[in-house]
Amino acid sequence: MGMALDTHSGVSDADLLAAFAAGDQSAARALTGRHLPRVFAHAHRLLQDHGEAEDVAQEAMMKLWKIAPEWRAGEARLSTWLYRVTANAATDRLRKRRTVALDAAPEQADDAPTVEAGLIAADRQKALHAALAHLPERQRNALVLRHFEELSNPEIASVLETSVEAVESLLGRARRALADRLSHLRPEARRAKQLKGART
Length: 200
Description:
By secondary structure, this protein is mainly α. Helix content is 70%, strand content 0%. The chain contains nine helices and no strands.
């Protein structure tokens, strides 16, 4: 007999997975509700494509259902395992791309402070996506996990299957690379560009 839905909030991931492996479909629904939104968000930040992120999220959950009977509680956190599977699947898709499609600049709301401010914000968002896309895979994964998913360095080390020291090194190199690629967006660089344009 399946566990009642109203008891799922206090049930651990490992217990829910074991219940699903024993045939409890409500446990699968509970796990999906817990983890699918974050898995999708992580895939979307890496891929910048809604459709592909949905596909990757579904792939990750399908892999979870397949390994459910073999899951050993205590060996790994389920969320960490899902982040790893999601990052690997997203990386595979990125490798197959010849060009990275960036999100279109969002339309400005009527109450935006100024058109120029809106364009600057849109430029920065596009530039950030472009800069992230140019980072080496492990640097990009580490940066997204740290600053978007807000994982700790030890948690990131577990996802990437490396040491905390290696994560710190990856983050340091990623931040320096981003700062270099985004340096043209600094106010002083923008003013210099405007002055140069005014002279020509």
